[in-house]
Specification:
heterodimer; A: two-stranded antiparallel sheet; globular; B: 275 residues; mainly alpha; 11 helices
Chain lengths: 315, 275
């Protein structure tokens, strides 16, 4: 890329009128050059904050390096990875994250499908519902986390009182804390999945539904035999996006428990090592592992489940 | 058939969705109007409505400076990001050039990137570049992570624009650049607007970068500042103050959603599912 952009400016200065009268191949070359000019700034900005820092993380992960003591930086090879992968805390964090991811995405898929069907079929108040569904999507995750935390909190919360649960301390037990975290995540992100599924529903041919109805298929049969197979691509893309997003969970945990009661996620652990403890060497090893696990999930979706990403790219 | 009854059932389901989406919002609004001991009375609504918490947050520099930072940073990031995405998406939708697939794949990979994996190295880099705890230090990552979504949304929009108009302009003697500026830009404006709203939402919502790459009031955005309300006891009742601050920063989101509902839905789904 750099060699191409380096030698183009001189050519670009040649007079435009001649160029437009020139032959097709010249025109095609001009188009090619314009294409590169137009995408170059966006690509540069995208890579500046991802590729370079990721490379830097890989490099730093080979050192024992704390910001508070930069002079003591020392090359340790793969030792940081060894430290992380033999530590029970890492595996507990991975388990917590996977647990949150699987439960969140599964619940969201069911509720999201229900919402999409309602939005697809509803006649009265169609616009109102489609507007309201965007509110959880747009709301700041931190705000949503506070709203749910205060709803379940011992002192300010209404949930215990509404359901007669007395003094249940939701945030002092691992599983109940995770339940509230998952609830907040599901609330916030189900609208996104339901809108993707709604767009998929709109593409299921209506005459197929009618044909199935004429053939005497029940509502359930039509849903599982006609609707779902015809929107498989939309479902897989929605699942891929939400799974990757759920696996990166950070904000909600930070606000609700700050990682207490074994509710720490991989992202949270990475943040704590790099920013709070300023252990950049160890933290970078965690960063690389976090990146690799996300890449692995994406790989499984694309290769294993054959998720068609050309749908996403709009090719 | 019982079509009226069916319509009614769907409407009831619609009401259920409304309750789902609005319950936590109404709750935090109601919490923000509670006064004194009311906060801990475990009731959903306040026994007496009061604006006290709002005057408290607007008298607190931690919040007002954060609000200023959030508005400034989000708007600047949105304008630059959408401008760059517009150029790139035009090229992707309209021009033939080698490496197009690579650009799209890169954008896709970046959209899936775990942002936390970058804050360590960025923290280090920004400190040596002297842009740690500055507006620009947040604007740059916000741009990078909103570009992919903007590029997809916009290239989907651009494909819908009639080719002939651009060709007609070129036949009339316009250069490719003029055809872009005079013909395509006005037609593409609605799409650009959608991309801008989604970008603004991302920047406004961000917490990971906001908390990692800032240290003071100089650049700390609202979501990060909210987390500091509890840590340091600026208020006797952090719960009420946080609720009021939360409501204030939710108002722009709700306003955008109410005004631009159709555009947002189109933008969210156009990139992901072929329309």
């Amino acid at each position: 890329m750099s060699t191409i952009t380096a030698d183009t400016p001189a050519d670009a200065r040649s007079s435009p009128p001649e160029r437009s009268r020139a032959g097709l191949s010249d025109r095609a070359r001009g188009e090619q050059r314009l294409g590169w000019y137009l995408v170059a700034p966006a690509v540069a900005v995208m890579l500046l904050v991802t590729a370079y820092p990721l490379g830097r993380a890989v490099y730093l992960s080979l050192f024992s390096y704390r910001l508070t003591d930069p002079d003591a930086r020392e090359f340790v090879g793969l030792r940081n990875y060894g430290v992380v992968l033999t530590d029970g805390l890492w595996w507990q964090t991975v388990f917590t994250t996977l647990f949150i991811t699987v439960v969140t995405v599964a619940v969201e898929l069911v509720i999201g499908f229900a919402f999409a069907l309602v939005m697809h079929r509803i006649v009265f108040g169609r616009r109102t519902v489609r507007t309201a569904i965007l509110i959880p999507y747009g709301i700041i995750t931190v705000v949503a986390a506070y709203a749910w935390q205060y709803a379940f909190a011992l002192d300010s919360g209404f949930v215990n009182q509404w359901f007669g649960l007395g003094d249940k301390a939701w945030f002092s037990d691992r599983w109940s804390a995770l339940a509230v975290i998952i609830l907040a995540e599901v609330w916030k992100t189900t609208p996104f999945i339901s809108l993707l599924l709604l767009a998929g529903l709109a593409q299921v041919p209506e005459d197929l539904q009618e044909a199935a109805k004429v053939d005497g298929a029940t509502t359930r049969q039509r849903f599982f035999r006609v609707t779902v197979p015809n929107m498989k691509a939309a479902i897989m893309v929605a699942l891929l996006f939400r799974t990757l997003d759920a696996y990166r969970i950070f904000d909600t945990i930070f606000i609700m428990t700050n990682g207490a009661e074994k509710t720490e996620s991989v992202s949270f652990l990475t943040y704590r090592q790099t920013i709070t403890r300023t252990a950049l060497g160890l933290g970078s090893a965690l960063s690389v592992l976090l990146f690799l696990s996300v890449a692995l999930i994406a790989f499984i979706f694309v290769k294993g489940f054959r998720t068609d990403l050309s749908q996403v790219r709009g090719d | 058939m019982h079509s009226t009854r069916k319509k009614l059932l769907w409407a009831i389901a619609g009401v259920a969705i409304l309750v789902y989406t609005l319950l936590p919002v109404v709750w935090i609004v109601s919490l923000s109007f509670k006064k004194g001991d009311d906060i801990n009375n475990q009731k959903f609504f306040p026994s007496e409505w009061s604006w006290d918490n709002y005057s408290t947050v607007f008298d607190t520099s931690l919040f007002t400076s954060a609000l200023r930072n959030s508005v400034g940073i989000s708007l600047i990031a949105t304008v630059i990001s959408v401008s760059l995405a517009t150029l790139a998406a035009y090229a992707i939708a309209r021009l033939q050039f080698k490496g197009k697939k690579l650009v799209l794949t890169t954008a896709l990979a970046i959209a899936m990137f775990p942002t936390v994996a970058l804050v360590g190295p960025l923290f280090d880099m920004w400190r040596s570049l002297g842009i740690y705890d500055t507006w620009i230090g947040l604007i740059i990552p916000y741009m990078s992570f909103t570009l992919p979504l903007s590029i997809w949304t916009l290239s989907a929009f651009f494909r819908e624009i009639p080719w002939e108009m651009e060709q007609a302009a070129q036949v009339d003697g316009a250069t490719p650049w003029q055809a872009f500026r005079k013909v395509i830009v006005p037609l593409a404006a609605p799409g650009v607007f959608t991309a801008a709203i989604l970008t603004f939402f991302f920047a406004w919502n961000d917490f990971v970068f906001g908390i990692s790459l800032t240290a003071t009031d100089a650049s700390r955005p609202v979501p990060a500042a909210l987390a500091f309300f509890t840590g340091e006891s600026f208020f006797q009742q952090p719960t009420a103050a946080i609720s009021a601050a939360a409501v204030v920063v939710t108002i722009p989101v709700i306003a955008l959603v109410l005004i631009f509902q159709r555009k947002i839905v189109a933008g969210l789904t156009s990139g992901a599912v072929k329309g």
